[in-house]
Design brief:
Elements lengths: L2 H10 L5 H23 L5 H4 L5 H16 L1 H22 L5 H23 L11 H16 L5
Helix pairs in contact: 1-7, 2-4, 2-5, 2-6, 4-5, 5-7
Length: 153
Amino acid sequence: MRDIERLFNEYSESHMNPTNKLIHSLAVPAIYFSVIGLIWSIPVPDFVAQYDINFAHIIAVPVLYYYFLLSGPIGAAMTLLTIACFLLLEQIAASTVAVWQVSVGVFIIMWILQFVGHAIEGKRPSFFTDLRFLLIGPAWVWGGWLKRFNINY
């Protein structure tokens, strides 16, 4: 069994309840967005800022590399999600609201929803046993969509 399949199977064990799965399909990508937003908000040195990049751009490279190591289609899907997050964050950054404020709000609300989902499920979140599941969660959501469209990962 490939590593991605094993990780998805293991992750799925604590995500069987339809309500919990629905909550996760919304909350997990939103948490991914909020974490990128929080990293985006860390000030960068001037020699980095002159290239119009921030720490979120820098961190995205090894994270996306990890996803591509797991699966090409998962890597491509996570790249699309990451690009969408960057585009939305650019819009927020151009507004009067600070990116970090939006990110903290989304992060808190979505984690509360996640824990509600796990209370309904009656099982602890997967990342309590393996921190890799913090990265697997968003890929798992995409994996579900890829299956619906008959795209093998």
